[in-house]
Amino acid sequence: MRVEVSPGGDAGLERGGPAHPAAWHRRKTIEQNKTTVTEFIDALFTKGDLGAVDEYLAEEFVNHDPPIGVTADREGMRTAGAMFRAAFPDWHSEMDILVGEGDLVVEHFTASGTQQGEIFGVPPSGRTVTLPGINIWRVRDGRIVERWGRLDELGLLRQLGLVNLP
Length: 166
Prior knowledge:
This protein is of the alpha+beta class. The protein contains four helices and seven strands, in the order ββααβαββββα. The chain is elongated, with a radius of gyration of 18 Å.
C-alpha cells in the first residue's frame, strides 16, 4: 500500500482510499493558494493587467520588500507592474520552484524581458535582461496579504549599465 504525504506532513492519504477530511481540506487550500499566486504573477507581470492588484491583493496587503522606488502597499505593486511592463513589454516569469505550506507560497523564478522603454532613467536599449528571485507570499481567504522577496536587483542594475562592478 502506497502512502502519500500531503503538504503539512499529514500522512494517511492512501491511494484509492478515503482521505482524512482535515488533511484533504489543507491540501486543497494549499493548491488554491498556489493557483492564486501564479495567476496574480501572470496577470500583473506577464499580461500587464493592472486590475490584477484589485483582484488578487487584499486591501491590507503589505510588501515587506518592495521593488526599488515603489511603496509597500497595493499601489506599489501596481506601480511595479506598470513600470516593468512599460520598459519590457514582453516581461514574463519562468517558475523554477513553487512550494506551498499552510498559508505560504514560495516561488523561485527567473523573469526576463527585452528593454523597449525607459526604466530607472535608462533609455531603451533592445537588450534582454533577466531577474532571478525568490518570493514568499502569504494568502488568506483567497487573497494575497503579504510578500517578502529577494530579487537580484544588483544584477538587473548591472545589465542596465547602471552599476559597473568587476
